[in-house]
Amino acid sequence: MSNHSLRPTTALPTRLRRGTGRRLRAGAFWTAVLLPLTYLPVLHGIVIDASAELFLLLLALNVVCAIVGHDHSPRSDSEQRSAAHDGHKSNAANAHNP
């Protein structure tokens, strides 16, 4: 019986960090894209009476999200998913063809 599977590897934490960073950038990007949709209702005073403070908070959040998500490319996400899916299919095909 081998303990090979119990050995710590550095590949998993690296992949996890890379995937988490990619998801964080994607989330920040899309938040920066969609957050301005909340500006008009807030400025009009529909949401709450403290609209000036809320507007400044949303504006600051939008700037932070734009900075964090500026390297994200929606096209690269779909290409990576497609490549991962194609790679998974070819690995499965190779497993069945000795």
Structure, described:
72% of the residues lie in helices and 0% in strands. By secondary structure, the protein is mainly alpha-helical. The longest helix is centred in the N-terminal third of the chain and has 24 residues, at 11-34.
Tags for this model:
elongated; 4 helices; 98 residues; single chain; mainly alpha; 72% helix
Present the secondary structure layout.
Layout: H1 11-34, H2 39-44, H3 51-68, H4 74-96
Helix pairs in contact: 1-3
| Proportion of residues in extended strands | under 5%
Oligomer: single chain
State the end-to-end distance: 25 Å
Class by alpha and beta content: mainly alpha
Question: Which stretches are low in confidence, meaning pLDDT under 50 for 5 or more residues running?
Answer: none
A few lines on this structure:
This protein has 98 residues and is mostly helical.
